[in-house]
Amino acid sequence: MTKTLFVVDDEQSMCRFFELTFTHLGYRVITASGVSEAVSIIDKEKYDVLLTDMKMEDGQGLEVLEASKKKNPDTPVLIMTAYASTDTAIEAMKLGASDYLTKPFNVEEVKLVIENQVRTSALVKENIQLKKQLKQVQSFEFISNSEVMRPVLAMIDRVAQLEATVLVQGESGTGKELIMRMIHEKSNRSQGPFIAINCGALPENLLESELFGYEKGAFTGADQQKMGLFEAAKGGTLFLDEIGELPLHMQVKLLRVLQEGKIRRVGGQREIDIDMRIVAATNRNLEEEVTEGRFREDLFYRINVVPIELPPLRQRSEDIPLLVHHFVHRFCSKYSEPIKEIHPEVMSALLKYQWPGNVRELENTVERLIALTVDTVVCMEHLSPKIRQVIGAPIVHDISIPEVGFNLEDHLEGMREAYLKKSLKICDGVQTKAAELLGISFRSFRYYLSKVKK
To answer: Taking the complete model, does pTM exceed 0.85, yes or no?
Structure first.
């Protein structure tokens, strides 16, 4: 989609420069020659980035900034001026400017700054679009009748309005990220972005540049400036998942960010103020990690201001029927299936199983049952052998065979075809994933599929 750059400057040569430069880069460029014209255009046009001069004949660029922020609060605004001063920059930033440029400026630098702001704008818009989805996601993990969840849910409401750092500890799959999303949605920062990063998912050298960003030339391959997640989360929440995986040298850097509220990009000299709430989660016992010297004690106390312990699913088994029925409705809708019934024997088995993968494992199990069960009732034979074996249920059940009109080969072919089609539907037509879902080799999958097509 074509991006739109809005330039406000009473120097026509400057407007013409931006038109020529950014039209060539694929942008749509609109211009205004003064404050009055700019304010009029703001009411009518949509744009991705606004670039305004500070001093013009009919007014100040700050007036344009205020008008834009009032109409389009999430759209980045850049100030350019030939009269740069610290006071001017501070005033502009307080009013919501994303950055400022000093005339005369380097053309390549301007390109990089604007392209960075376009990416940030896209990220903010994506977060806004995801809010409806987020509200749908919010409810299902915390449909709960269990006593152990009540203090957790009460704590969410209490801490949401605070700026204190929250640390959620719990096993994998218990819903730690969802807790953080709910806190963000109930907070005064709900209109800002919610950005999550798994601290254990990136190599050490990439983690720092992802969080802090970097300047052009900071290292081999850094051919342009990049904003990090600390800056991208401006006005919102940054969620550091699996913070226990953070290397010790990165723990030092994070501690400084929490203490000073400033960052410095990799390869940069300028300190940048940040405005976002940091929250964290881990499946490790951080107190033990501190004792073993793998986690800094001072950082632990910094992030553990408001601790929340999330219980595993096996400690709130009374929630399983509620969660199962919710997942059944969700996945029947997803796969355009009529609502399927869970046989009481299956529900009993689900209650007996210990769920080492917690709610995430239960969700995946129900999705698989709904997607691959041809019948309208989910029975014991539809459960995975793993679950049946763990709970001590027989792997093979009695089956009924009609006295007449039954052909085993036809029956098996029909069942195989149904499972093949279902698996392809689940995996969006990706055959390798469908084969994995069915627990067969890709070669076998292709063979069975060729027989169906014949």
So the answer is: no
